[in-house]
Amino acid sequence: MIAFALAALLAVNAFVPALHEGDTLPVIPLVDQSGHAFSIAQLRGNAVVLTFVYTRCADARMCPLESLKYARLQRALGDARVRLLELTLDPAYDTPAVLRRYGAAYGADPRRWTLATGAPASLADLATRVGIASERTAPGTIVHTEATIVLDRDGAIARVIDGNAWTPGDMLALARDAAGERPAPLAGLQTWLTAAIQRCGGGDLPVSTLELIALVVALSAVSGTLLLRSLRLSDRT
């Protein structure tokens, strides 16, 4: 039933955001999971990965998957100047206390990952402007499209990504770029390898710097051994 309703919603509401890359995201009053007044403007100086969810979502392919990817992304952040933000599509139910419990279930660290609510009209307008269509089809059930928005450190939209097919490794690379961070040594290879493993279903955890260094050392050792054997064979001939 949910899949049918989503298909109908998609048929009527194609992904056509009113805000595009380079536009500044409107600032609306919000309340975070701790019950404190919050504004996206407070995150200036960091890249922000933003999406919309609701805590009663029962479709494992939708909000739960998005939040699971946020959890993986949070583990990969390291010292990156990147903040994660989820806004609710169901402010009447998703109070700060409900959002706090939801975030805790996914391991959300309030220092890096904010879940927030606000005035229903303001949230609905913002969701629509970034291309998210939603419709309440039954009590506690909201059928909606998905998108993830990456904001740069000045609060402007750097990327708008339709759907939730992104990987944490790819998203981290986009967010670091939006933050204006110069890639650290091996960062590109680390991000690529993490994304490749996740695309192949090989694991949820990002490749750590130590693991990457170990891999590089191991590959260097194998290459050195093969080269040495090749030279010895050449000497014999």
Characterize this entry briefly:
Helices cover 41% and strands 19% of the residues. With 237 residues, the chain is of the alpha+beta class.
What does it look like?
The protein is of the alpha+beta class. It has a single domain (2-184), classed as Glutaredoxin (3-Layer(aba) Sandwich), CATH 3.40.30.10. It has helices at 2-12, 63-76, 96-105, 120-129, 168-178, 187-199, 209-236; strands at residues 30-32, 37-38, 47-53, 82-88, 113-118, 134-138, 141-144, 147-151, 157-162. The protein has a seven-stranded mixed sheet. The chain is elongated. 35% of the residues are buried. The model is unreliable at 4-12 and 204-208 (pLDDT under 50).
Write the layout of secondary structure elements.
Layout: H1 2-12, E1 30-32, E2 37-38, E3 47-53, H2 63-76, E4 82-88, H3 96-105, E5 113-118, H4 120-129, E6 134-138, E7 141-144, E8 147-151, E9 157-162, H5 168-178, H6 187-199, H7 209-236
Parallel strand pairs: 3-4, 4-5
Antiparallel strand pairs: 1-2, 1-5, 3-8, 6-7, 8-9
Counting DSSP H or I runs of 4 or more residues, the number of helices is 7
Strand order of the main beta sheet, please?
Answer: 2-1-5-4-3-8-9
Number of strand elements: 9
- The value of Rg in angstroms is 21 Å
β-strand amount: 15-25%
CATH-level-2 architecture: 3-Layer(aba) Sandwich
Give the termini distance in whole angstroms.
73 Å
The oligomerization state is: single chain
**What is the CATH domain class?**
Alpha Beta
Q: What is the CATH superfamily label?
A: Glutaredoxin
